[in-house]
Amino acid sequence: MQFLDLAPIRSVAGTVKLPGSKSISNRVLLLAALASGETRLHELLDSDDTRVMQDALRTLGIAVKQDGAATVVTGAGGAFKVKSAELFLGNAGTAFRPLTAALALCGGEYRLSGVARMHERPIGDLVDALRGLGASIDYLGKAGYPPLHLKPAPINAGAKVSVRGDVSSQFLSALLLALPLTGRETTIVVEGDLISKPYVEITLGTLRRFGIEVARDDWASFTVPDGARYMSPGEIWVEGDASSASYFLAAGAISGLSGGGPVRVEGVGRASVQGDVRFAEALEHMGARIAMGDNWIEATAGEKAKLAGKLKALDADFNHIPDAAMTVAVAALFADGPCTLRNIGSWRVKETDRIAAMATELRKLGATVEEGKDWLRVTPPAALRPAAIDTYDDHRMAMCFSLAALGGVTVRINDPQCVNKTFPEYFEVLGRIAR
Fold first, then answer.
1. Considering only CA atoms, which of 154, 157, 137 is closest in space to residue 145?
2. In this model, does residue 299 exceed pLDDT 90?
3. Whether the Cβ atoms of residue 158 and residue 186 lie closer than 8 Å to each other
4. Catalytic-residue membership of 323
5. What is the DSSP letter of 339?
6. Could you tell me the CATH number of the domain that includes residue 175?
7. Which residue in 2, 65, 174, 189 has a CA-CA distance of 20 to 30 Å to 72?
8. Could you say which of 48, 125, 276, 323 is catalytic?
C-alpha cells in the first residue's frame, strides 16, 4: 500500500489493548539468549524490530520458538557459541546497539549492517567505549557509523569504561546489558548529561529480573558486579508499549473537546516501568482529564478545555520522554496557542531527523513551525488543511499524524506500512474506536 487516506474522524471512544513494549521486548530477548536456562516470554511484541532481533539470535545459535502465545528462548548461559556470522538488523536500534556490545565481548568475528538510515545513525560513542575495553571493531563505511566488522580480541575485563550520555541512552544500555559477559566488576562512567533516563531504568530493571543488580552513583556511573551471571527468571510478561499508548490517549483528549472520548489503554498504568507513561502528565498540563490504575490509563478533555474547545498550550522539557513527545507536537495543532518542546535533540538521530520531519509535515497542515537544534515550536492554524503526510520510513511519524484527522480534514498517510516496526495493527485499532 503506497498510501492510506484517513477520512475526518468525528470522535473516538473505547478501550485499546496495547501491543508489548518494543524496548522491553528486545531487552528480554537478548538477556534470555545470554541467560542460563529456558525463558518463556508472554505478550512479546510481534513487529519488524523484534523479528530482526529473533532472527539474529537464531543465526547466533539460540533456539527461539513459539509455544502457543508464548515465545520460548533457550539461553546460551553466557557468550554466544556461534563465533562467525553476518547479521542484517534493519533499522532496529534496540537490536543493533545491544548486539554490537554483546558480540564485541564474545570473542568471535561478526559483521553487522542495516538499512541505509541505520548507517546514518551514530554508533561511534559505543564503539569507542568498547574499544576502551580492548574490543576490535572496524567501520566498513563512514567512521562513527554502521556497518561494523567485529573481530576477536582480548577483553580487558574489569577495566573502567567511559561513554557519552548526551547522544543516545542506548549506548549506556548496550554496555549495561553486555558487560556481565566479562564476569568481572566493571564501572561505566557517563560523560555529559544522560538523556532519556527512563530507558536506562528499563535496562536496569530488566537486568534485575535476570539476576543482575547494578550499583549506581546517581546518573554519573554504574557498576556491574563481579561474578555477574544472567539467570533466567523462567517466565516474563512484557507490559504494553507506553509510547504507543500516547496516540490513543491524545486522541481521547482531542476528541473530548467536542464531546467524544474517553479512550482507555490497557497494558500500562501506575505500575509501569516505562517512562513514557509520563506522557499522561503532559496531557494533563494541556487540559486533559486523566484517570489511571495499575495497568490502565484513560483520557478525555477536562472541563476547562471542553469549554474553550482547545487544549492548553505548553512550554516544556521533553528529554525524559522523547518518543512520546512527538505526539505532543501533533496535539499542539489543537492548542490555544504556541507549544514549545525543548531538549529533544535526540530526535535528530532517530529513524529520521524527527525535528526536521515534524516541522515539514506540520506546516502542510497549516501550522507555523519554528525549529532549533534541540527544540520545536508549533503554532496551530485557525483551521487545519487536508494534507498528504510523508512518513520518512518512521513508524512514529505515521501514527502521530493520524491524529490530525480529528481536526475535520482528510489526512493521507504515505507508506503506512512503516508502522510494522512497532505496531502493525495500528490503523485497524484506531479504526475500531473511531466514529
1. 137
2. yes
3. yes
4. yes
5. E
6. 3.65.10.10
7. 174
8. 323
Tens-digit pLDDT profile for residues 135-175: 999 999 999 999 999 999 999 988 899 999 999 999 999 99
What dihedral do alpha carbons 101, 105, 107, 112 form, nearest 10°? 0
Q: Which domain does 376 fall in, by range?
A: 3-20+240-433
- What sections of 257-353 are H helices per DSSP? 279-285, 303-308, 322-331
Question: CA 222, CA 229: separation in Å to the nearest integer?
Answer: 17
Asked if residue 202 and residue 175 are part of one domain, the reply reads: yes
Cell of residue 419, nine digits: 508502522
Q: Pick from 395, 25, 27, 38: which is nearest to 239 by CA?
A: 25
Q: Supply the Cα-derived Rg of the chain in whole angstroms.
A: 22
Question: What's the CA gap between 179 and 222, in Å, rounded?
Answer: 11
pTM over 0.90: yes
Identify the CA nearest to 283 among candidates 304, 258, 311.
311
Instruction: Return mean pLDDT, the chain.
Output: 97
User: Tell me, what amino acid is at 96?
Assistant: F
Amino acid present at 267: G
Helix (H, G, I), strand (E, B) or coil at 195: coil
Domain tally, the chain: 2
Question: Is residue 202 located within the same domain as residue 300?
Answer: no
Q: Residue 229: helix, strand or coil by DSSP?
A: coil
